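== Sequence, structure tokens ==
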Amino acid sequence: MLKICTVYHKGLYTPDYVGKFYRAIKRNSSINFQRVCISDDPNVEADFVLPLNPHSNIKYHWHKLKFFSPQFAHQMRGDDIIIMDIDQVITGNIDELLKYPVEKGKLLTYEAWWDRILKKNGGFYKFKSGTLNHIWDKFSLNPEFWQLNYYNLVLYIKNIMVNKIMFLTKLKINIQLKRYQVSGYLNIQTIEKKI
């Protein structure tokens, strides 16, 4: 089963934005998926709404790392997990992106054209359930350390996943960020560790 996972917290967006985001995916895809959202508002529109603890020592966007735990979000062995930010606007069919195969132990994303240094997109990850649980396991042992030293979640994942991140760079995607256009063609590359 494909699970498309998001995090919503009160502030920049309203709760109805989660429902609009998922409906846009449904309109622009023929692929069945479950909607899973970590939220501080139980009224967001999703198949599973998991509570975001306001007293947690985990900062808002870092809650996305919970999805790397196979015990979280009703995951089953072999599920395809996609984590997406809700500030993306779907502008056309995304079937190819959603069904793109990902190997066990690999993380799939597309290049962040707006970030010339990291070039990693923190708004889209795809992986097989249960194959990258070490990302959550390591973080959960000392969240304050990771958040303080790697405020950018992408830096943390890059540090943990050296040689295992795959970029889509020749696959047509039809997604816009709220402020940025990211529509284009993508293909696969694997990040190599540079010494």
About this structure: The two ends are 38 Å apart (CA to CA).
